[in-house]
Amino acid sequence: MEKIFCALWGADPQKLLTEVTKKLANTGAKNIRINIQDAAVEDGAGLIQSRGDPLPNAILQFWLSSSNEIFRNACDAIVNEYCDRFDSWLVAESQIITNEKHPPQSEQRCAGFSQIAFLTLPPGMDWQEWRNVWRDYHTQIAIDTQSNFEYVQNLVIEPLTKGAVPYVAIVEECFPIEALTDPFVFFDAAGDQEKFDQNLAAMMESCGRFIAPGTIDVFPTSQYNFG
């Protein structure tokens, strides 16, 4: 099985949750997940980061037996029908923190919110060095300094659509809903100024090692799981 990650622009959220999921399932897609920028996360505008291009309003993730074009065409046609445009990538998923605290219920909004981060390779940085810093060093920092109850790293293997943004990784992390507006909750330091300062400093130092300012896209979403 291979995992496909899609970013959608101009998508109809309601149709994604009802029509698209059923049609994709009929083509053989498994473990479908929809992430939507909706009213439930609009208070999290302060968490948004952008490279400058318009951000997608929805994310679609699913697994197929093969991402080869001849097996993926039916899925691409379905997705294309329900948005203005989409980019997709083949990714290798790594479950860093499995959501055992708030297990998702099929077809229902997951607790809290899900933050999606699209990462690009910093100018002048070697890919292997970037990968080592992100996977082998930063992973533990992210676990130790945040209130995330789900943490998924998706290493981009290759783009699947022509002209797709050259992301090298896509990260999804779930947080308590209070973390949308309260950085102390976000950094797992509610009511503790010293812990907050330490966690924030550790996170910023770590991110600075493999992320260049203005080169990533980050935004909060509501997460839905199917199947």
Written description of the protein model:
With 227 residues, the chain is of the alpha+beta class. The protein has one domain (2-226): Alpha-Beta Plaits (2-Layer Sandwich), CATH 3.30.70.100. 29% of the residues lie in helices and 30% in strands. The chain is built from five helices and eight strands, in the order βαββαββαββααβ. It has helices at 13-27, 69-81, 127-145, 183-186, 193-207; strands spanning 2-9, 30-36, 58-64, 85-97, 113-119, 150-159, 169-175, 217-226. Strands 1-3-2-8-5-7-6-4 form an eight-stranded antiparallel barrel. Helix 1 packs antiparallel against helix 2. The radius of gyration is 17 Å and the shape is globular.
Give the topology, please.
Elements: E1 2-9, H1 13-27, E2 30-36, E3 58-64, H2 69-81, E4 85-97, E5 113-119, H3 127-145, E6 150-159, E7 169-175, H4 183-186, H5 193-207, E8 217-226
Antiparallel strand pairs: 1-3, 1-4, 2-3, 2-8, 4-6, 5-7, 5-8, 6-7
Helix pairs in contact: 1-2, 3-5
Provide keyphrases for this structure.
227 residues, alpha+beta, Alpha-Beta Plaits, eight-stranded antiparallel β-barrel, 8 strands, 30% strand, globular
In whole angstroms, the N-to-C terminal distance is: 15 Å
Helical element count?
5
Q: Based on Cα principal axes, name the global outline.
A: globular
Computed Rg: 17 Å
| Poorly predicted regions | none
Average pLDDT? 97
- Strand order, largest beta sheet: 1-3-2-8-5-7-6-4
Please report the first level of CATH classification, the CATH class: Alpha Beta
What is the β-strand count?
A: 8
* Count of individual domains: 1
The largest β sheet comes out as:
8 strands, antiparallel, barrel
- Beta fraction of the residues? 25-35%
Helix content estimate: 25-40%
Structural class: alpha+beta
CATH architecture: 2-Layer Sandwich
H/E order of the elements? EHEEHEEHEEHHE
CATH fold call: Alpha-Beta Plaits
